[in-house]
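Is it possible to get an amino acid sequence alongside its tokenized fold?
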Amino acid sequence: MPEPLPPPVWVNTKELLQQTLDDLAAQSRLAVDTESNSLHAFREQVCLLQISSASADYLIDPLALQDLSALAPIFSNPKIEKIFHAAEYDLICLRRDFGFSFANLFDTMHAARVLGYPAVGLDTLLRDKLQIQTDKRHQKANWAKRPLTTEQIHYARLDTHYLFDLRDTLEKELREKERLEFAKEDFNRACFFDEQKMKSNGASWERFANRKDLSNRDLTILAALCQWRDAEAEKLNRPVYKVMMDETLVALSKNPPEHKVDLSALGMSERQIQLWGDSVLEAVRQGKNAPLVKRKLAESPSDAYLRRMEKLKLWRKKVGIEMGVESDVILPKAYISAIAQNPPKSLDDLALLMKETPSRVEKYGLQILKVLGVKNAN
């Protein structure tokens, strides 16, 4: 049984934040996590920022502090390693809400994937590697509510407290399996801003544009319904699905109702009809009379591109099976697409396309060229 932990430091004033910064800035590494309210608000936000140092676990309250810009130099400092578990989502949220940039990361979930572990959740890894039991019941809690319960505070601090030991255990295994360079290159690539992965809550009708079961008029009605739902969700500050599910909007679009009596058969509950029946019918009427929306269909890839993609996917799947890892660990999605789009003619061309991961070029470069049919790829 691990010894009882000292209470975490709740940071909700400028004075406490400055004291926290004095400790964090002196560290060579920190463990970091965030809690957001994506299941409970129209526009999600970071509601808690957990940072552990060698001396304390800090729970920083952005709802009380509002301005966390003083933390920016910590995240961008290449001399301080920031340890995350499943970093991608945390990085997206921290960039979105606070404009942070990042350097020197270690992602324990990705490290476990590079090692080939089939289950890479934090609770599983802590249990299997460190014999630490955690309780994930609070994962979907509304972290914007104050005060947090004692159980929530304990749950939040555990998400970072043991990351140092887990990180060291996984790094040792990466070295032993000669996969550390793969992982480090992936950690470094995660520091780069990727606008494609920034998502917004309350997405528009364009998410449905590729559905072949929807006519242009159906889509136009759906656009009006999405606009109504987004406005209502924002007014109520709740996720759009808690106003009305996508499938209900699609049903209303494909079979436009004219009267309230029609709404129940299309998936609306009595409560929804009572609250929004008139508004839904008005949105449907607007959609029926509006100019048709235009689908923004993606350009169809060439047959040559698709053939190259298929060959590369088959190759990386085979190598992944041999190494005991998922295929994207061998050749991440961004690279497989770039290679298929602009097939390299030489190892130098490939090295340029994959300049962020030279260890993969060294290990697999010639194999990739052979898969693409490059002559003299020896």
